[in-house]
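testing teh design pipeline on a random one, pls ignore if ur not involved
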């Protein structure tokens, strides 16, 4: 099967990390695109596994060098996807999973086009989102308020996504994510369709 691109977006606290981790053993060989950010690590986050944590100056140097497939400012910090590891994983025919915001989704669609499958994940209500952000105990009240305000804007982009996952029960959200990851593996780009058709007709 050919390589595949799956973008997962949703408000901070929606359960993106939880669902990707829960599904990891059931979706075959994949590469999780580790983003680079200028935000400070949360307790328990590991450099190179959760994010590459850099300074603002280092990030801006990366922008100048053209290192990023896409980048955006989210909640006042830079977040970006490094181009090189994604390119390598795609060349190896892997499923590449991105945990990026709605701005990143738009840019990845521009760059990778019809190959992209995307899912938006959210808790059932805004109230539940706030409860989970508080329960995570990783952000101050100020930061949580910023994330809740941003969530109200992000949900307006729902129409731009292929799938919606309502993360009420972790088990059901995990199963939905596994189905979507499998669908992403079968998604063909326009170029792949053309190549396949040419070959199919010539044999
Ligand atoms: P994100 O990666 O989208 O920012 P997390 O995966 O860190 O979100 O989840 C936010 C918080 O909500 C975590 O404390 C996590 O344990 C909790 N959580 C995730 N999914 C559920 C769920 N279905 N029910 C209750 N709590 C959940
Ligand atoms: P958090 O700080 O909660 O880890 O992430 C905040 C937001 O930034 C989330 O919506 C997450 O999806 C998004 N994000 C993480 N990495 C990237 C990235 O590389 N690019 C973009 N555009 N957004 C990202």
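output:
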């Amino acid at each position: 099967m050919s390589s595949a691109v799956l973008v997962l977006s949703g408000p901070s606290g929606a359960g993106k990390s939880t669902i990707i981790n829960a599904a990891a053993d059931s979706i075959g060989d994949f590469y999780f695109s580790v983003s680079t950010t200028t935000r400070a690590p949360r307790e328990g986050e590991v450099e190179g596994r959760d994010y590459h944590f850099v300074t603002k100056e280092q990030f801006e140097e990366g922008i100048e060098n053209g290192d990023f497939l896409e980048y955006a400012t989210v909640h006042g910090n830079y977040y970006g996807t490094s181009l090189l590891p994604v390119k390598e994983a795609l060349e190896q025919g892997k499923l590449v999973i991105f945990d990026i915001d709605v701005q990143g989704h738009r840019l990845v669609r521009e760059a990778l086009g019809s190959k992209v499958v995307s899912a938006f994940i959210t808790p059932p209500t805004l109230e539940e989102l706030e409860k989970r952000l508080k329960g995570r105990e990783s952000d101050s009240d100020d930061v949580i308020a910023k994330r809740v305000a941003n969530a109200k804007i992000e949900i307006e982009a729902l129409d731009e996504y292929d799938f919606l996952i309502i993360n009420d029960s972790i088990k059901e959200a995990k199963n939905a994510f596994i189905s979507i990851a499998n669908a992403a593996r079968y998604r063909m780009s326009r170029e792949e369709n053309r190549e396949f058709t040419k070959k199919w007709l010539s044999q």
